[in-house]
């Protein structure tokens, strides 16, 4: 069996349920760290909410 399997074309990361993975590009390391720190200290009660109106099949 050979060691190499060719050139990698992408990356894969396993992210557990309830976690968010951020990728930051085009910013300095210090700005990225500051943004991550600010995001980590946001109140945890902020959630993304879905539509509040319930649709029936005939309403669509």
From TrEMBL:
<dbReference type="InterPro" id="IPR000114">
    <property type="entry name" value="Ribosomal_uL16_bact-type"/>
</dbReference>
<protein>
    <recommendedName>
        <fullName>Large ribosomal subunit protein uL16m</fullName>
    </recommendedName>
</protein>
<dbReference type="InterPro" id="IPR047873">
    <property type="entry name" value="Ribosomal_uL16"/>
</dbReference>
<dbReference type="GO" id="GO:0032543">
    <property type="term" value="P:mitochondrial translation"/>
</dbReference>
<keyword id="KW-0687">Ribonucleoprotein</keyword>
<feature type="region of interest" description="Disordered">
    <location>
        <begin position="40"/>
        <end position="60"/>
    </location>
</feature>
<dbReference type="GO" id="GO:0005762">
    <property type="term" value="C:mitochondrial large ribosomal subunit"/>
</dbReference>
<dbReference type="GO" id="GO:0003735">
    <property type="term" value="F:structural constituent of ribosome"/>
</dbReference>
<dbReference type="Pfam" id="PF00252">
    <property type="entry name" value="Ribosomal_L16"/>
</dbReference>
<comment type="similarity">
    <text>Belongs to the universal ribosomal protein uL16 family.</text>
</comment>
<keyword id="KW-0496">Mitochondrion</keyword>
<keyword id="KW-0689">Ribosomal protein</keyword>
<dbReference type="GO" id="GO:0019843">
    <property type="term" value="F:rRNA binding"/>
</dbReference>
<dbReference type="InterPro" id="IPR036920">
    <property type="entry name" value="Ribosomal_uL16_sf"/>
</dbReference>
<feature type="compositionally biased region" description="Basic and acidic residues">
    <location>
        <begin position="42"/>
        <end position="60"/>
    </location>
</feature>
<dbReference type="InterPro" id="IPR016180">
    <property type="entry name" value="Ribosomal_uL16_dom"/>
</dbReference>
